[in-house]
Amino acid sequence: MEQTALLFSTRQSKVLAENIASHYGQRLGKIEFQEFSDGEYQPSFEQSVRGARVFLIGSTFTPDINLMEMLLMCDAAKRASAKNITAVIPYYGYARQDRKDNPRVPIGAKLVANLLTAAGATRIMTMDLHADQIQGFFEIPVDHLFASTIFVDYLNGLSLDNITMASPDMGGAKRANAYAKHFNTDIVICYKERKEANKVARMMLIGDVKDRNVILVDDMVDTAGTITQAADLMMEKGAKSVRAMATHAVLSGNAYERIENSALEELIITDSIPLKRNDISKIKVVSCAPLFAEVMHLVHSKESISNKFVI
């Protein structure tokens, strides 16, 4: 008899999880959250998961309740004798804390990896980690998917000529270069200097963007300060248009206002994190649900997923 697959969701990722389940071809499993008066909560599976492959779907964006829900669900599934527990985390929170860049600071990404493993996860499925090496923080399999498989189709639909791929910082050069190779075009890079987190002190452009349709590529947009400053700089340097693609729309602080008032033609994102506002015309959402549903099917049927790791 084929092993059963069951899908469950954290509360804040319910819309995405329902979309994934729809593409997967079944409904989300039954789970209830009991809340206590002090704010504590307890998830409870309302159906048997014994011997099943369980997919627990939920991005671990702030607040930390989203991470804690995932951990409690993993623990509950483990104690209910699930055979395989896959934590499907489209956005992996704390990924920016992937190293000690200052004395006496934690490596948050490694801590979260330890917590997920200790809670009972036997496999991790995520998308566009802030740093590829985070996969090495786990002693269990990690399926690291790329949103490029979604974004490429969107870009092809725009039918733009004279495309130039761009990275808003030096760290994203590898990602932008992969797109540039795929589209057989040039790449430019923004060099930025920071004096403190989330604030860019100075930015310079490496490369030529005159009369080009520029596509900025990044893994996430938080305050939108870097990406909007880069777009303004490129328009000043003669770019024909500037668009941005970012997998994870963290969008904190004044990010929405910055995007709406910037030189960006549009910001293309996935639904790995639900938007706080839907009134910004420049933000275009493409769903990652079909990608996750397909890979979950392949994992469940023990088929190769290697073609999902490339553009």
Percent in strands: 25-35%
* Strand order, largest beta sheet: 10-9-8-11-12-13-14
Overall pLDDT score: 94
pLDDT < 50 stretches: none
For the record, give the distance between the C-alpha atoms at the N and C termini, rounded to a whole number: 36 Å
Query: Shape, please?
Result: globular
Fraction in helix: 25-40%
Q: How is this fold's topology laid out?
A:
Blueprint: E1 5-9, H1 14-24, E2 31-35, E3 41-45, E4 53-57, H2 65-79, E5 84-89, H3 108-119, E6 123-127, E7 142-145, H4 148-158, E8 163-167, H5 173-183, E9 186-196, E10 199-206, E11 213-221, H6 225-236, E12 241-249, H7 255-260, E13 266-270, E14 283-286, H8 289-300
Helix pairs in contact: 1-8, 2-3
Pfam families: Pribosyl_synth (PF14572), Pribosyltran_N (PF13793)
Keywords: ATP-binding, Cytoplasm, Kinase, Magnesium, Metal-binding, Nucleotide biosynthesis, Nucleotide-binding, Transferase
Catalytic activity: D-ribose 5-phosphate + ATP = 5-phospho-alpha-D-ribose 1-diphosphate + AMP + H(+)
Report on the structure:
This protein has 311 residues and is an alpha/beta fold. It folds into two domains: 5-146 and 290-308, Rossmann fold; 148-287, Rossmann fold. Helix content is 29%, strand content 28%. The chain contains eight helices and 14 strands. The protein has helices spanning 14-24, 65-79, 108-119, 148-158, 173-183, 225-236, 255-260, 289-300, and strands at 5-9, 31-35, 41-45, 53-57, 84-89, 123-127, 142-145, 163-167, 186-196, 199-206, 213-221, 241-249, 266-270, 283-286. The strands form three sheets. The protein has a seven-stranded mixed beta sheet, sandwiched between helices. Strands 1-4-5-6-7 form a five-stranded parallel beta sheet, with helices on both faces. Helix 2 links the parallel strand 4 and strand 5. Helix 1 (14-24) packs across helix 8 (289-300) and helix 2 packs parallel to helix 3. The mean pLDDT is 94. Residues 7-120 form the Ribose-phosphate pyrophosphokinase N-terminal domain. It holds the Pfam family Pribosyltran_N. One of its GO terms (cellular component) is ribose phosphate diphosphokinase complex.
